[in-house]
Design brief:
This protein has helices at about 1-5, 10-15, 20-35, 50-60, 90-100, 120-140, 160-170; strands spanning about 40-45, 65-70, 80-85, 105-110, 140-155, 170-175, 185-195. The chain is of the alpha/beta class and about 200 residues long.
């Protein structure tokens, strides 16, 4: 708790009005890769509390759309449509279809992580499952040429998942933003030019 309270990015997020320190991870990725653009349709998987959705909404602007999925309640955000539910379930997908109203998804972003037990043999497969589910969502909803940004943890399953990503996207790199804690095994995939 003390580490969290004293964290530079936690303090900045309060000062800058972001809902979480995670906003700075996406901002750093954006500075490097420019995957968010005005007018895009962006889907944020596992969005609560909304830090990534805030950043995305600011960049895509009023001509774009941000749709935030989470199984948890999320307070409303300007420029963001929140869908409470599991993005694998029919009801949530029907809500997505209604919001999209025929538009295609330009970018899928995911900062999802499982509730950790502290046991790597349990936590790593859970984390990789979330990555696989996010990639499967791309296969069903992302337009050709679209992009994908996803938190992923180094460990068992990482290399196979990256091979799968690279078979579906023309560009795929991993980044470790400064806002990501040094001791964390998390990195961020940034992929573009979706083609299958």
């Amino acid at each position: 708790m003390q580490r969290h309270v004293n964290d530079e990015y936690v303090k900045r997020s309060k000062r800058d009005g972001y809902r979480s320190r995670a906003a700075y991870k996406l901002l750093e990725l954006q500075d490097k890769d420019r995957m968010l653009k005005p007018g895009q349709v962006v889907v944020d998987l596992g969005a609560a509390p909304g830090g990534w959705s805030q950043v995305a909404a600011d960049i895509v602007g009023p001509s774009g759309a941000v749709i935030a999925f989470d199984i948890l309640d999320m307070q409303a955000l300007p420029g963001v449509t929140c869908i409470r539910g599991d993005f694998r379930e029919d009801g949530a997908l029907q809500a997505l279809g209604a919001v999209l109203d025929g538009r295609q998804v330009d970018l899928v972003i995911s900062d999802m992580a499982p509730n950790v037990s502290g046991v790597a043999a349990v936590d790593q497969p859970r984390a990789m499952l979330l990555c696989e589910l996010a990639l499967d969502f791309c296969a069903r909803h992302l337009r050709p040429g679209g992009g994908f940004v996803c938190k992923v943890f180094h460990g068992e399953g990482f290399d196979a998942w990256m091979r799968d990503v690279k078979s579906r996207f023309g560009k795929a790199v991993t980044r470790k933003p400064k806002a990501s804690r040094a001791k964390s095994r998390e990195v961020y995939l940034v992929a573009g030019n979706y083609h299958s």
